[in-house]
Amino acid sequence: MAEIDAFLARHGLGGHARTPLAGDASSRRYERLQDPSGESLILMICPADTLPALDAFLAIARHLTGLGLCAPHIYALDRAAGLAVLEDLGPTQVAQWAEAHPGDIAPYETAIDVLARLQSAPPPQGLAALTPGLGAEMIAPLGEWYAPGLDLAPLREALQRALERHAPTASVLALRDYHAENLIWRPEHHGTDRIGLLDFQDALLAPPEYDLVSLLRDARRDVSDRLRAAMLARFAETTGRAPAGVEAACAVLGLQRNLRILGIFARLAKRDGKTRYLALMPRVWGQIRADLAHPALAELRPHAAAIPAPPACSRGDRFMTTQGTPSAIMIFAAGLGRRMGPLTAHRPKPMVEVGGRPLIDHALDLTAPLMPLRRVVNLHHRGEVLREHLQGRDVILSDETDKLLETGGGLRKARPLLGPGPVYTLNSDAIWSGPNPLTALKRAWDPSRMEALLLLLPRENALGHTGQGDFLVDAEGRLSRGPGHVYSGAQIIVPDGLDAIPEDAFSLNLLWNEIAARGRLFGVVHDGRWCDVGRPDCIPLAEEMLQGTHAV
């Protein structure tokens, strides 16, 4: 502390107010220095083991400013002490601006223009190069920290081949951590000067799409498919690259980055106690699944299937379950209800009454013990009737009026409304007796082993159901397909894998198949009865069951 005070005093900054700034994944620290007039600078504090990174920061900063780009000017430096005073480029990250101005894409457009300018000039000498071999080796933390014991060799070999095909040449300077929290938005400036550049000490030579992937496959915030597509097109146009080649390179580089990031985030949590990075893992996993869907990565899919999905967690000593408890429910209410005949001619099936109340109200009743819970209901057929009925209720509507998306597509569409992490899903066309099905699922949910937990019934307790059953249950609760227990329409599921399914409208069966192949599809048997209200003749069965004990 005294060394810092003396450094600041030597440079006439001893009287500045000092405010710590949020840290990053490194051991560096930052403070904002502010004089009485409000003018500010940034103090960078580098531990002794990071001095080479300080040297790299200074060299890259000189290169960037030489290109006319906005990197911090260095006002004071004590290299031996690891202290530097930098220009304060501004208080507003691109991430903060985008959160407050979701329709303004100018920061992202300008960030693409910065990449085009950066790549138009020869890179500095002496930098490491991200060759396909090095890129494949860099996923080592995945096996060391995220999935210990996982044999990475087949995945690494397939990844190297994909990099050799689609991103073979490390030809440009990549700043490496080029994402919205490391970019400062300066709307009062012009051209590329509107983007301030930070945190580039790990820069290296890489394929041209590397920083583009860092920007658009952001581990810290969602980038919409529409914005991503527009920025890919802008990058291709400004750099003169073929759009198809850009997309393929982004897919393989995105996979390489995010496989490494999973391992790095696990290490930060487990070794360094920085558990906030665990909350970012589901987004990273979703991006991995999305990139694996690209045709360029077809060879990699079988090898990536062995990687477990990240259970959400809250502590770094092990992947825990606190954050894995669902905080939202998707109630499926968009079906056509054709089997109901005239009963659904002028109303959706969830508005069919059982015991004097609409089915949707029975479904919402089941959520009461779990409140506060974000409740999302989708609608399609006669959706205006359901919308009017739910008006003023604590319910969010996911509108599928234009196209019925089935259970998988409907859940994927609703994900922005549901929020991150696992969710409950519940079919609205059923009546229950016995224990509350949602609380039963909550008690049995174990995200360290499960990506989906389905609530099942013996056939004799499934009223109105005419099939032979859906699943077989082994001694540990894992599910496989076959005649046996009946799926009730209630579950907890991690929905991240939906992003990789190319169809618009599809059944959740597709995701279940993938989860089952990883050994993470489980079931628990309901200790009560259930009635499938899918036909008019099922209504009296359900009403008779209601005369007994209702689900509590």
Structure description:
The protein is an alpha+beta fold and 552 residues long. It folds into 3 domains: 2-87, Phosphorylase Kinase, domain 1 (2-Layer Sandwich); 94-304, Aminoglycoside phosphotransferase (APH), C-terminal lobe (Aminoglycoside 3'-phosphotransferase, Chain: A, domain 2); 325-546, Spore Coat Polysaccharide Biosynthesis Protein SpsA, Chain A (Alpha-Beta Complex). It is 35% helix and 17% strand. Strands 14-13-10-15-21-17-22 form a 7-stranded mixed sheet, with helices on both faces. Strand 4 (74-78) and strand 5 (83-87) form a beta hairpin. The N and C termini lie far apart (60 Å).
List the helices and strands and how they pair.
Elements: H1 2-10, E1 17-20, E2 29-34, E3 40-45, H2 51-66, E4 74-78, E5 83-87, H3 94-100, H4 106-119, H5 132-137, H6 140-146, H7 153-166, E6 172-174, E7 183-185, E8 195-197, E9 204-206, H8 210-216, H9 225-239, H10 243-270, H11 281-292, H12 301-304, E10 328-332, E11 353-354, E12 357-358, H13 359-365, E13 374-379, H14 383-390, E14 396-399, H15 406-418, E15 423-427, E16 430-432, H16 437-444, E17 452-457, E18 462-463, E19 471-473, E20 479-481, E21 486-493, H17 509-517, E22 521-525, E23 530-532, H18 538-546
Parallel strand pairs: 10-13, 10-15, 13-14, 17-22, 18-23
Antiparallel strand pairs: 1-2, 2-3, 3-5, 4-5, 6-9, 7-8, 11-12, 15-21, 16-23, 17-21, 19-20
